[in-house]
Amino acid sequence: MSTQPSKDLETFVNPEPGRDYTIRIDIPEFTCLCPKTGQPDFATIRLEYVPAAACVELKALKLYIWSFRDQGAFHEAVTNQILNDIVAAIRPNFLRVRAEFNVRGGIYTTVVAEHRNPDWQAPQPVHLS
What we know:
Elements: E1 11-13, E2 23-33, E3 40-50, E4 54-56, H1 58-66, H2 75-90, E5 94-104, E6 107-116
């Protein structure tokens, strides 16, 4: 079992591929470095996805997120990189990455990036009264 940062995203077979369901993951301890100053940036990363054939394994996701700790990246770039890497690993029907960065210089930044499988039809929402 690895305890070192890694860009490898392990997956496992979706146990219910015939059903649309949502997986929500909150990662409150994300860190990377400001590419201008080298100072640390802190964020909560929120993932929401509707899996297709595969799901992301959580230990591998933790090590993947950890791999950004010493990487300089703009908020917009790192959010989109996380989206692209997870899409490449699991090919979900839908994935939203929401990166909520802590205050820096009096400014909070939130970046939201999404992927939708063009062949997937989202189910109609159910509204209960």
